[in-house]
Amino acid sequence: MLNYIFKRLIMMIPILIGISFIAFLLINLAPSDPAEVALRLNEIMPTPEAIESMRQELGLNEPFWYRYFNWLYNVFHLDFGRSFIHRDRFVWDEMIRCLKPTLILATSSFVFTLIISLILGILCAIFANSMFDRILRIIIFLGTAMPSYWLGLLFIWLFANYLDLLPTNGYGSWQNLVLPTITLSFVYISTYIRFIRNNMIENMHNYFIFYARSRGLKERTIILKHVLVNSLQTTITALGMTIPQLIAGSFVVEYIFSWPGLGRLCISAIMNRDYPVIQAYILLMAILFVVCNFIVDVLHLLLDPRLKESGSLS
């Protein structure tokens, strides 16, 4: 087990280095001169003298590899430079400021997704091919196919404009959290209900379920302790990768509901070509995906003894 973890950690090093290189390369592939962009964002006339001065301040006159390793060294010390929009603010400070709202939204969406998916997935498996199951599968199909921005606009029209029940923007109370949470969770709920339902239906026809029924176990015990537990392997792997997806993929929902999180910060940076913020966002989200993928793999191996027996941990 420890040998497997060590090998995976070693394999993560070149992946993270490659991600950092791609993130840094962004500023060099940009069609606009970063120095000119920084000047215009601060409402300074981009004269040749001002551009040259800004290039020296940003270190753009140095060779590429020198700038990359210098930037990478600073990243290890959590220094991503200064924002082009706010020259008096460090990028890391801006990321930390927006991290809390994003984590609140991602956590509430994850919990909501987990609870609703388990309840409806179990019910769909128990009442498979019933009217309830068929109606819910139609809703699941629509939820999977519907984009988050369109769903968010529908919720705003229904719950805010038509029913006047919930606010459409803002941050600070649970009312502000309801619509973004439902919007962000809807697609994932549709996916995981389908996972749980199909896996449980498949496991209901296995021999160990017939054996459990022949022993006289209660149906509730069979469903929860045997069918459900053995049906969660694929779902746990998918749920583990949902965490970074909720954090990195919340920018559309945050923008629609004016939620002051990392996604909204990234959209603002893209619109204003604030390259240091974009670089930091790409790097941190990529690291989050790599780390969560590693944790999910280790957790999956711990929960599935068959992988240990097959030599996956050797």
Polypeptide structure, described:
By secondary structure, the chain is an all-alpha fold. The chain has a domain at 100-275: MetI-like fold (Orthogonal Bundle). It contains 15 helices and no strands. It has helices spanning 2-29, 34-41, 48-58, 64-76, 91-126, 131-145, 148-162, 174-203, 207-214, 219-231, 233-248, 251-256, 262-272, 275-303, 305-309. Helix 5 (91-126) runs parallel beside helix 14. The mean pLDDT is 81. GO terms for molecular function: dipeptide transmembrane transporter activity; nickel cation transmembrane transporter activity. One of its GO terms (cellular component) is plasma membrane. Keywords: Cell membrane, Ion transport, Membrane, Nickel, Nickel transport, Transmembrane, Transmembrane helix, Transport.
Task: Describe the largest sheet.
Answer: none
The CATH topology of the domain at 100-275 is what? Answer: MetI-like fold
Report the uncertain regions.
Answer: none
Q: What is the total tally of β strands? A: 0
Shape: flat
Helix content: over 70%
- What is the correct CATH architecture of the domain at 100-275? Orthogonal Bundle
Radius of gyration: 24 Å
Within CATH, the superfamily of the domain at 100-275 carries the name MetI-like
Order of helices and strands: HHHHHHHHHHHHHHH
CATH class of the domain at 100-275: Mainly Alpha
Topology overview:
Blueprint: H1 2-29, H2 34-41, H3 48-58, H4 64-76, H5 91-126, H6 131-145, H7 148-162, H8 174-203, H9 207-214, H10 219-231, H11 233-248, H12 251-256, H13 262-272, H14 275-303, H15 305-309
Helix pairs in contact: 1-14, 2-3, 5-8, 5-11, 5-14, 6-8, 7-8, 8-10, 8-11, 9-10, 11-14, 13-14
